[in-house]
Amino acid sequence: MKHSPIEHILVIRTGGIGDLVLSLPLLMVLRKCYRQSWLEVMGYRSRLELLEGRYYADRICSVEQSGMASLFVQNGMLPEKLAQYFASFDLVVSLVSDPDGLFSANLRRAGVKKVISIVPLPPQSGSEHYSRYLLSQLTHGGMKAGLTEPKLFLTEADREYASQFWREHGFGRVLAVHAGSGSPRKAWRPEGFVEVANWAIEKLGMQVLLVSGPADQKAVHQVLQGMESRKSLMLENFPLTKLAALLQKCRVFVGNDSGITHIASAVGTPTVAVFGPSDPRIWGPQGKHTAVVKSSFPCSPCTRESMYRCGRQKCMDLITAEEVRGTVKMLLEGS
Q: Which residues does residue 178 pair with via DSSP β-bridges, in sequence order?
């Protein structure tokens, strides 16, 4: 029996910025396996802009639309417009929590020819890197795995924007710092970032770019207040495409276990990631240009449940500015 060609593919990827970046190797495999196919990605639009027209996605679509909740109900009433949308795809790869299989069943009921459902969180007992875990699940669907190093592609317009920004602000060699994280429990103390930033200014002759998102203001302002020099600039709530382009222009980046750190690594910037409760073997940025400064505290890394039960992240407090400075210096000398 002859199989119908897969001409239209949809990947549904919710989750945080870091989850999206670590899913890039999966998208790369789909691109390479189905070179002539239309590839669409559904998720949170502000994050997916990193992909649209930048190799991975021919189009992006918001998951936040009317009727989506019906796909999580057994034999739910699917809105006609939504059912027609899903039926237009030959293959849907779903990275959505679907323990009862209702979401996948409703996608098939809508008319999707093939559904590959991937549990979005890896087993807690494992130590396989998240990108490799996702690829291993995809290969169960008959596809060949590729490289696991996430890579973001920028457009000429992205790069020209960054070059113009550099000219306007008189930037040269820049250290980018992101003191925030998706969880404050994964954030290194602001005083540590201050020490590293001041050292980069005084000893390396660098300027500092402070990155701040909606949940980062407190930590970032603490770093800004501790800076001894005015050779710094704060980027507050920048669109991710512009932020990615600016990070690519930086000489080195220092941050926590966060989505911004993964963006910096994925655009090829030498990246130092500070890890405490989370496991860098699973969640760390990938590539020769990246390095992790990991806590040596006995219970680090720990489970998500243990992290939220912990009153104070001593694992993060024990990481010294000297360790981070030494890692920055090593990356600068090796690049």
A: 255
Gap between the Cα atoms of 135 and 240, Å rounded = 25
pLDDT at residue number 2: 43
129, amino acid identity: H
The per-residue pLDDT for 76 is 80
**Whole-angstrom distance, CA of residue 324 vs CA of residue 193:** 9
Residue 230: its pLDDT value, please?
66
Q: Domains for the chain: give ranges and CATH numbers.
A: 8-139 (3.40.50.2000), 159-334 (3.40.50.2000)
Least confident range of 152-156, 191-195, 268-272, 295-299: 295-299
Rounded Cα distance between 137 and 33, Å, is: 15
167 CB neighbour count, 10 Å cutoff? 9
Q: Which amino acid is at 101?
A: G
This model's pTM is above 0.85? yes
Cα separation, 59 vs 45, whole angstroms:
11
Cis peptide leading into 298, omega within 30 of 0? no
Q: What are phi and psi of 271, to 5 degrees?
A: -125, 130
H helix and E strand count, the chain = 15, 11
**What confidence tier does 1 reach under pLDDT thresholds 50, 70, 90?**
very low
DSSP state of 171: -
